Amino acid sequence: MANATELLPGSRTEDDGSAVVRVLSYNIRSLRDDTAALARVIGACAPDLVLVQEAPRFFRWRKKLARLAAASGLVVLTGGATAAGPAILCSLRATVERTEDVLLPLTPGLHRRGLATAVVRFGGARLGVLSCHLSLQSDERYVQGGLLLDRIAAMGVEHVVAGGDLNERPGGRTFRRLAEGLQDCWETAPWGGEHTSTPADPRRRIDAVFASPGIEVLGCGVPLGTPGVSEGDLRAATDHLPVLAALRVPAA
Question: What is the pLDDT of residues 53-87, one digit of tens each?
């Protein structure tokens, strides 16, 4: 694993009301691995928002997700079983306007998928937020990409960040569909590591953070070399590597 060459900007609110927001996207594999390592990675990334995939969905799922959030210095914003796996965690810096969990159409024989969404404010900046985990099946994934874009349009906010496990590389048609109208944050401002799967031998970028065009991407990538984020914890925490982005969101 390569190391990040410099640190991403920290969270802050500017004099003009704009805000630098740190966003982490992370597939946590239903907390089946080393949850202490997972919490250390999340906490060391100092995110304002965590776009979670594969949150716990069954017995006492709310309590399990709340424990992870608390151990990471965050709170649960929305999602989990009610979104079929995606969830959003946030810091107390966020002022929450509304949340909505959306179940996507079920294809017989395949897993139910959903979207966790919210609208939040940081200082004078208003931001739509979406976490997703798209299908393993190509045709269904492409349809879900379109539904994701429809949901973003329906949120009624100028600035949006979306992220998750796309189950597809950047050359895939669904990935390209999302990147046509949104910024692929890694491509816009690459930082840290690129590949997210698997932690033991990362060769594929199938997890991503996207931002609407008006957002300034200050850096985005796997937080290798970030203080407090060890390679041992990254390997033990789950079967994906996280993606961390620093975004400057204009004031509303």
Answer: 999 999 999 999 999 999 999 999 999 999 999 99
Model confidence at 167: pLDDT above 80: yes
- Candidates 225, 115, 101; CA nearest to 166 is 115
pTM more than 0.90: yes
Q: State how far the Cα of 207 lies from the Cα of 167, in Å rounded to an integer.
A: 7
| Residue 2 pLDDT > 50 | no
Cβ neighbourhood burial of 92 (10 Å; 0-12, 13-18, 19+): exposed
Give the whole-angstrom CA distance, residue 115 versus residue 234.
Answer: 25
Q: Give dist(CA 111, CA 89) in Å, integer.
A: 23
Alpha carbons 244 and 153: distance in angstroms, whole number: 24
Structure tokens at 19: 């805000």
In whole angstroms, give the CA distance from residue 159 to residue 171: 25
- What are the distances in angstroms from CA 211 to CA 81, 84, 161, 249? 25, 23, 4, 10
Closest CA to 29 of 197, 181, 217: 197
Q: Which helix (H) or strand (E) holds 42?
A: helix 35-45
pLDDT tens-digit readout, 195-226 = 999 999 999 999 999 999 999 999 999 999 99
Gap between the Cα atoms of 14 and 87, Å rounded: 28
Question: What does each C-alpha distance from 154 to 158, 166, 209, 238 come to in angstroms?
Answer: 11, 21, 19, 33
